[in-house]
Write the structure tokens for this entry.
Amino acid sequence: MYFKSLFIVLLFGLIGCQSTTLKEQLLKPPPELINFALATRGATAESPDNKPPHLPEEVIDGDISSDTWDEGSGWAGSLNHLKSDEIRKRTYIRINLPEKKEIKRVVVYTIDSEKYPAKKYGLRSYRLEYWHGTGWGIIPTGRQVDVQYTIRDNIAGKIVHDINGRLVTDKIRLVPIYSNDTKKSYELTAFGGRALYNIEGIARVMEIQVWGYDLPTGKAAEKFTKLLAPQGKPEPSDAMLIREVLDTYEKGYESEDLEKVMSCFSQNYFSNGRGYADIRNKAFDFFQQNDNIDLTISNLNMHTNVIDGTIIANAILTLQHTPVGSRQPKQVSWKFALTFAREDEKWKIISAD
């Protein structure tokens, strides 16, 4: 009886100690978010636009003020991608972190001062993207507008984007689409009937903050890696459906069937500055200018992006064709990554790298 009583005392004492520890853990505040997008933390910034004095490194210097824009603060990006014949020249401002981090929030500061108010000169529309290992995907945030824009019709100087789900990366970039002073005026018509435009306005970014946590190291890192591994292979049915889409894509090119080719793409397709209409025009022009087209997709592998449920297909594309003018057969091969999203129970291509 004595030993039974002693056991009960010890048992409840042990539970009491564990409860206290649990309570302490529950009351322990979460770790502070760290802004990793600072030059002082080893971050770097780059862009196709490197025109002094508004250089890429200005967005990671820790200065969020717009008052010194005229002295060279902030980054200035070209909006020439809005010209119909220069869609590939879409600019961006990219932040490179020294190592992968778990990102929880991205804060964008566009220009906003008494002289240059955001509603007149700031960023109006843009995309936030992250490097997922094989290409760029749009960052899932609570302010998502659609698959093409992260934000649209903005008039604020500070825009906070909280991340939905878990996102681990070492590269993020902002792709400006419009600024609030963008003016697009018709200039002339190019070969093929495409309209050309004059573009006024620039993309102005004062600072980009990338807030998150350090990743664990040692044994904790192994567990964390396994937790993040859900980038596994898609369900067989999804893989088969995407393979069918790619088969349709191949057959569409080989039969020069524009509608069949475009049935593989989402109406919301957007990648490297090009939308659905641009892809259609490019395919139409290719069919007009070439014969004996043969398209082969090989070395296909797929994985699921657990952040947003999309499926990324990596493969090698080999294209054989004979230009109408020269009649000399040509062949070209390249690696690509296509991102698929489910729309109305069908898989559609929403971006490509």
Summary: The longest strand covers residues 158-179. The helical segments are 2-27, 118-121, 218-228, 236-254, 258-262, 276-289. The CA atoms of residues 125 and 151 lie 5 Å apart. The chain has six helices and 16 strands.
